Each structure stands twice: as C-alpha cells, then as structure tokens.
Amino acid sequence: MKTIHYTLVVAVIAVIAVSAYLIVTRAIHEHADFAVFINGEQINFSQDKYMHNESAEKEKNATHGQEDEDKAHMHDLVGWIAHKHAADATWGIFFRNINITFNSTCLVFEGGSYCNNETHKLRMLVNGAENDRFDKMEIRDLDRVLFAYGKAGANVSSHLTALTDEA
Asked: Average pLDDT by consecutive 10-residue portion of the chain (167 residues)?
C-alpha cells in the first residue's frame, strides 16, 4: 500500500513540474530588434523563407522539434524583430529556425560561410556593447542586437543606426 501511495505522489509531483515548465516556457511573448551585416551589407530577412510558417513547422518537427520552432522566430514579413516565446530561447535557436548556422566563430547561410580568420571577424553588439555569448545569448525583451561580419578591427558603429526600436 505504501508503494502505491509513494508512486502516486511521485506521479503527481511529476505532472505538476511538467505543467509548470510548459506554462513558464509558453507564456512568454517578448521581442528584440536585430540586424545582420556581412562585409558592410545588411541582410534582408523580410522574406517569406525566413518567416515562421505553421504548415512548414510540421515538417521541421522531425529535425529539431516543434518546441524549438516555437521558442524564437519571425513572422508577418517583419525581418528585423525576433519573437521570443520561451525563457530559454537563444540567438542560436533563433538562427537555426531560419536555417542559419551561427556560433561564436561563424555565420553560415545561403551557400556562404563567414568565419573568423586572420583578416575578418564576426562580432555581436547587444545594446551597443560587445558581447561574446553569440549563439548562447538569451534573446531578451527590447534588446537591440547587431551581428556584423567584416574586417577585423573595423568600426561597426555606423551599422547601429540600422537597428530599429520597434520591439
């Protein structure tokens, strides 16, 4: 009889824990402004291929799961605002959801690889300050994030004006 009670208590605790996790991760709806520059040219993400698509989501579930697709994405052809729907949504998850490989050394998409080398460097500025968290950086509400790949030591402050304040 004690075993049944113990099992029942453990099951109830597990259900409560899972429910609390789902509520916390799904109840978030935050936004961050962002821009990506490659060798001085801003990338246009206001294209359908980068947007969250409910029907395409079902196909993606087999590769990285619906939960990642739902965590961070863009929609309505607004290619400068990242939507965050989970506490653990990172820029790495966001870029993976739009088929871009992104980490502290490389940005890879549409057949191009933009990786750190002797002459060029990938940089990330969050609210105007250098940041080295890259793909591990949590998307935070109202942040303004610049991703820039170009000549090492180049001044990217002029790119900051491309960041909107619409989040």
From this structure: 61 51 64 97 96 58 57 94 95 95 95 96 97 97 98 94 95
Where in 21-143 does DSSP place strands (E)? 30-38, 41-42, 72-73, 81-84, 101-102, 106-109, 112-115, 120-126, 129-130
Residues present in the chain in total: 167
Distance CA 134, CA 62 (A): 26
Q: Is 134 exposed, middle or buried (CB count within 10 Å of its CB: 0-12, 13-18, 19+)? A: buried
Residues 6+ apart with CB under 8 A from 118: 152
C-alpha angle 10-21-82 in degrees, rounded to nearest 5: 165
Distance from C-alpha of 22 to C-alpha of 85, rounded to nearest angstrom? 11
d(CA 5, CA 7): 5
- The helix or strand, by DSSP H or E, that contains position 80, with its residue range, turns out to be none
C-alpha dihedral sign at 78, 138, 140, 164:
negative
**Which amino acid does the sequence have at 1?**
M
